[in-house]
Amino acid sequence: MSLIEIMTKAQTKLKIAETIVDLKSDSQAKMLGALKILETIGDKTVLPDLIDVLRKKEVIVSKAILELIANIQDQEITEDLVEAIRNEKEANIGQQLLTTIWNSKLDFSAYLAEFVSLATEGDFLQALECLTILENLSGPFEEHQLLEAQLYLKDYAEDLEEKEDRKHQIISEIALFIKDQNEGIDADLLLD
User: Fold this and answer.
1) Of the given ranges (5-14, 95-104, 131-140, 182-191), which has the lowest mean pLDDT?
2) What's the whole-number mean pLDDT along residues 120-126?
3) How confident is the model at residue 36 (pLDDT cuts 50, 70, 90)?
4) What is the pLDDT of residues 68-82, one digit of tens each?
5) Residue 157 clears pLDDT 80, i.e. is over it
6) Is the previous residue joined to 48 through a cis bond, with omega within 30 degrees of 0?
7) Which of 90, 106, 122 is the last residue of a domain?
8) Which of 77, 106, 135 is the last residue of a domain?
9) What is the distance between the alpha carbons of residues 116 and 149, in angstroms, rounded to a whole number?
10) Total domains in the fold of the chain
11) What is the pTM of this model?
12) What is the average pLDDT across 35-63?
């Protein structure tokens, strides 16, 4: 790596750090300006800051943050985004982040089982978002993903008496989707 490349990376990191300060300010204009800058120079390291600001700010800024996340073209962010959703304590933020996934052009097919898990653990709206994501995944899916998804569905079915009817309907649709994806895989390995 040349000296110029090292200097450019250092300058970019400094600019990102300065931009994060503006993003966390109380000025809506500074926040929106910071989002525009991050759109061009940001990288996956800014995702936690974006989510942190998403929890605290008004609708216009939240909408801009969600659009920025949905427009990220770096495939490497998929794992970080799924992990952020998994760890999110606020249901509203988790659901908004799920919405960004099905609005995104990135391929989240490697997280099929994770979305089934989120659907079975979450509320009706989270399950609905997960179904939408699943239906938009490009596939094909690996056998271990389908088997893991079926295990989550089986665990959900064992506790069925406690579940709400609307969510049960969504989970049934997810189960049908998983069943359709199983065509061509050894039937002896699959659950009913």
Assistant:
1) 182-191
2) 90
3) very high
4) 998 888 888 999 999
5) yes
6) no
7) 106
8) 106
9) 6
10) 2
11) 0.81
12) 86
Q: How many residues does the chain have?
A: 192
Range of the domain at 115: 108-192
Q: Identify the residue whose tokens are 């596939």.
A: 139
**Same structural domain, 99 and 192:** no
Q: What is the rounded CA–CA span in Å between residue 118 and residue 108?
A: 14
Instruction: For residues 118 and 102, state if they share a domain.
Output: no
CA dihedral sign, ordered 73, 85, 83, 149: negative
Residue whose token pair is 């495939």? 75
**Rounded to an integer, what distance in angstroms lies between the CA atom of residue 25 and that of residue 57?**
10
Q: Please tell me whether residues 133 and 179 are part of one structural domain.
A: yes
Placement of tokens 């989270």 in the chain: 126
The candidate with the shortest Cα–Cα distance to 42, out of 64, 20, 66, is: 20
Pull the structure tokens for residue 161.
């008496």
Quick one: 126 and 188 in the same domain? yes
Looking at the structure, tell me whether residues 118 and 79 fall in a common domain: no
